[in-house]
Amino acid sequence: MSTPPASDYMGFVGVTTGSSSIMKVFPLWADILGLPTRTLIGHDLPMDAAPEQYRALVEQIRDDPHHRGALVTTHKMNVFAAASELFDELDPFAISCSEISSIAKRGDKLSGRAKDPITVDLALNDFLPANYFTTTGAEVIILGAGGSGTALSWALAEREDAPQKVTVTARSDDKLDHLREVHRQHGTRDGLIEYVRTDSVEDAAALVAAAPRGSLIVNATGLGKDRPGSPLPDDVVFPEGAYVWEFNYRGTLEFLHQARGQEQSQNLHVVDGWRYFIHGWSQVVADVFELELTADIVEQLAEAAEGVR
Questions:
Q1: Where are the alpha helices (DSSP H) in 38-164?
Q2: Which of 17, 64, 111, 174 gives the lowest tally of CB atoms within 10 Å of its CB?
Q3: CATH class of the structural domain 118-272
Q4: What would the pLDDT profile of 209-219 be if each residue is shown by its tens digit?
């Protein structure tokens, strides 16, 4: 691991952190929020990192007095699996979803939280009309049952206008079994979530094509960011009037390009991951530095970030 700075800093645990806009955005946010540091350090780990690598990183964060805490992206489920016992405090979302997206310090205690159910709901409400599912009967297809897909399914189950059906896909039964257990512990309404293993992009495309008009179709796989590709083939047909949400805002973004290609012909509402990025980062920064965020402050942060997008 690299030699840590001799002054306070925040960390960013990811795969290719240097490519993220947050590296330019964080100093601007630090000025707006009056943070004690303008320094953000990336901790890059490969997609197939070993458990001991996660443990070593969490121990580094815990033991370095200058390390204020960190946001975890791609590795949040692996951090929980490998290092959850190193934390003194875990919030209910972290325990139920088996993921840690925010690492913070409270005195001599190390705190782990799963912020995604909150941040994904904030981002969803930024573009989806109120009472949308109640008034339209639209359904949801979440492609990917990792941390972000799990969080969205949790947030949808909590909505007052929850959809009639949420289909979540994965390439392995293990991930779907884990998601079932998350929803069982959560007390999610029986029949709301359908768990579907998709062995090919064609399997996923068939689900998307059969979804009702106006449905919400989401790429929560990480494909198009951490590694190239899309969970759907190029000949997929999106439902007419669908909201198509790409969780990523940077990378090769094949899924986003597929949706853009049908934006006019299928009357799609295409949304990238920029607002999700804003909410995800602002919530974790607030957690690490023990701040209260208002809607006005979040909009100030979003405006500052727009200049470096």
A1: 51-63, 76-83, 92-97, 116-127, 132-136, 147-158
A2: 174
A3: alpha beta
A4: 999 999 999 99
